[in-house]
Design brief:
This protein starts with 8 loop residues before the first helix and ends in a 16-residue tail after the last helix. By secondary structure, it is mainly α. The model has no long low-confidence stretch (mean pLDDT about 90). The protein has one domain. The chain has one helix and no strands. It comes from marine sediment metagenome. This is Phosphoribosyltransferase domain-containing protein. InterPro entries: PRTase-like.
Length: about 40
């Protein structure tokens, strides 16, 4: 099956920037905001 690009690196960067702005807007700043990630099979 051929590879299919869903989002380019530029599109991913833009989406992440928008998500970050929304988090800051909804929380009235970044004070006290914690982001947690989990590695696959981690």
């Amino acid at each position: 099956m051929p590879e299919k690009v869903l989002l380019t690196s530029r599109e991913i960067g833009r989406a992440l920037a928008r998500i970050a702005h929304e988090i800051v807007e909804k929380n009235k700043g970044a004070e006290g905001v914690v982001l947690v990630g989990m590695r696959t099979r981690g």
